Amino acid sequence: EPEVTQTPSHQVTQMGQEVILRCVPISNHLYFYWYRQILGQKVEFLVSFYNNEISEKSEIFDDQFSVERPDGSNFTLKIRSTKLEDSAMYFCASYRVGDYGYTFGSGTRLTVV
Amino acid sequence: AQTVTQSQPEMSVQEAETVTLSCTYDTSENNYYLFWYKQPPSRQMILVIRQEAYKQQNATENRFSVNFQKAAKSFSLKISDSQLGDTAMYFCAFMKSNSGNTPLVFGKGTRLSVIA
Known about the structure:
B: mainly beta, 6-stranded mixed sheet
């Protein structure tokens, strides 16, 4: 069954450093998303991406965050200058109209120290 | 804005028994989609079941079924013949349309423990 792949599974970074989280969506999907889950809390929407541009973003997705689809297969989330409160599980998801629902990746656990 | 409320932070059930997880939501939309996602200790988000608001019939997927009460804005998940592998966080989620351009809105989750 097709799946969404996220790398790395766990990343530790120093506060103030830039991180890039990578995702490979399902190949024929056109809608891509990033969600965040702070430990023990609910899953929160960050951003949706379609046709090479952001279609919607939440209040969380401020100027520190950016997304890109650099090569037609990868979908990345960049955090420019990480803060302690960015420590969370980050989930990528993709979707095609008509699908039963979003398909989520396994997530990247980001730890900012 | 849509909100999703799960009022049971934790629940437990004996293996082979039946358990029901509650979810309520608030929306002014008439057509929308509701989901239950399972998050086992591996942290992966797994889609369990979907309900379209325009369908009166409750969705069923094997041992999982929902009780969708549109007027009451209630969407509960029933797990029959509970198995140890059902131990997980369960999230109720709302989506305004299936166009792809509307995000999922999640509840805070219910942690379910299945006891042998």
